[in-house]
């Protein structure tokens, strides 16, 4: 019997992307609610409890509501793409390449919290260096990032694309999260293995999808006076054998003069770069990913497949 998959919130940006990815999957039975009935709680509860895996593509409060709708004796497994459970006990964090054995944790979990797009890049850069003993857990980490506007969902897409929208945004690029209290900071701190919150400065560009995440470092504040090659070696070792994450060779990075945030659009991959000039005492760690791919829908499908035992 085919596993039953229900996307709760399939008509939103992330849900639509997941639905499109699963449309041609003959190995799955997709349960669906018509858009006109998407707010019908009885039908939602029925679908949630009939599914083998429910993928929640909802705001935080609605995601918590859906989890509560699943009966205590029900075996429905859940992937939550909201921020509601990313630091919650009992939930596996759905970044399969984050650490050794992590894909197995996801595969065996009943409850999986899909990572945020920005944190996927930030944690992907920071955690390997903390684990390698190079980056102190109390280092004052700064994360700067730019995302395509699809990361803001239907509302922001309309604000960026429809010039007749009363809230139309004409800016080619804008900074937000100005209070330094962005909702992604707690998961960056917890899963980045940091002892205090990183300073996070997110921004949005006038491009639909794609993302650059940066973590600049003063090498004098790291352990053991590392050089660029030491940082690169730690990252390369951490992701050895991975096919989703590529650590770009230092020599190749040194030849680059710019980075394109759309480079990995329509893929589920992530590239990691180490930039800097030897002897200058500074490094800039950079991650590039598709905010709708490895940063959202692609990660959810990857986690679903792990839970179904379809990938290693």
Detailed description of the structure:
32% of the residues lie in helices and 20% in strands. It has 312 residues and is α/β, with parallel strands linked by helices. The mean pLDDT is 95.
List unreliable stretches of 5+ residues: none
Report helical residue fraction: 25-40%
Q: Main sheet, how many strands, which sense, barrel?
A: 7 strands, mixed
Global outline: globular
CA radius of gyration is: 20 Å
Q: What count of helical segments does DSSP give?
A: 10
Major sheet: arrangement of strands: 8-9-7-10-13-12-11
* N-to-C series of helices and strands: EHEHEHEEHEHEHEHEEHEHEEH
Tell me what portion of residues adopts beta-strand conformation.
15-25%
- Secondary-structure-based class equals alpha/beta
The total strand number stands at 13
> Whole-Å distance between the termini?
21 Å
Task: Indicate the mean pLDDT.
Answer: 95
Offer a quick outline of the entry.
With 312 residues, the chain is α/β, with parallel strands linked by helices.
List keywords for this structure.
312 residues; alpha/beta; seven-stranded mixed β-sheet; six-stranded parallel β-sheet; 20% strand; globular
Write the layout of secondary structure elements.
Elements: E1 4-8, H1 13-22, E2 29-31, H2 41-50, E3 53-56, H3 60-69, E4 77-80, E5 92-93, H4 102-108, E6 111-113, H5 117-131, E7 142-148, H6 153-161, E8 173-175, H7 185-191, E9 199-205, E10 211-218, H8 228-238, E11 245-247, H9 250-254, E12 270-275, E13 282-289, H10 293-307
Helix pairs in contact: 1-10, 4-10, 5-7
């Amino acid at each position: 019997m085919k596993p039953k998959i229900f996307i709760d919130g399939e008509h939103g940006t992330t849900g639509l992307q997941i639905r499109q990815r699963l449309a041609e999957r003959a190995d799955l039975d997709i349960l669906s609610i018509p858009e006109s009935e998407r707010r019908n709680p009885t039908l939602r509860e029925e679908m949630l409890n009939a599914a083998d895996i429910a993928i929640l593509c909802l705001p935080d409060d609605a995601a918590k509501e859906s989890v509560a709708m699943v009966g205590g004796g029900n075996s429905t497994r859940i992937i939550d793409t909201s921020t509601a459970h990313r630091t919650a006990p009992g939930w596996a964090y759905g970044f399969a390449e984050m650490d050794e054995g992590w894909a197995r944790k996801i595969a065996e979990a009943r409850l999986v919290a899909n990572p945020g797009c920005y944190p996927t890049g930030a944690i992907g850069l920071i955690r390997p260096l903390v684990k390698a003993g190079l980056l102190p857990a109390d280092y004052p980490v700064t994360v700067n990032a730019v995302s395509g506007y699809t990361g803001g969902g239907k509302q922001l897409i309309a604000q960026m694309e429809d010039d007749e929208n009363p809230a139309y945004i004409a800016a080619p690029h804008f900074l937000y999260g100005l209070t330094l209290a962005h909702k992604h900071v707690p998961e960056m701190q917890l899963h980045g293995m940091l002892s205090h919150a990183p300073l996070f400065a997110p921004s949005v560009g006038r491009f639909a999808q794609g993302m650059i995440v940066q973590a600049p470092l003063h090498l004098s504040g790291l352990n053991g006076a590392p050089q660029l090659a030491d940082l690169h070696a730690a990252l390369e070792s951490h992701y050895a054998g991975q096919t989703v994450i590529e650590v770009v060779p230092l020599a190749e990075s040194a030849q680059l003069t710019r980075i394109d945030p759309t480079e990995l659009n329509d893929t589920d991959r992530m590239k990691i770069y180490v930039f800097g000039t030897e002897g200058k005492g500074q490094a800039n760690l950079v991650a590039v990913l598709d905010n709708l791919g490895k940063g959202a829908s692609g990660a959810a499908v990857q986690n679903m497949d792990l839970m179904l035992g379809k990938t290693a």
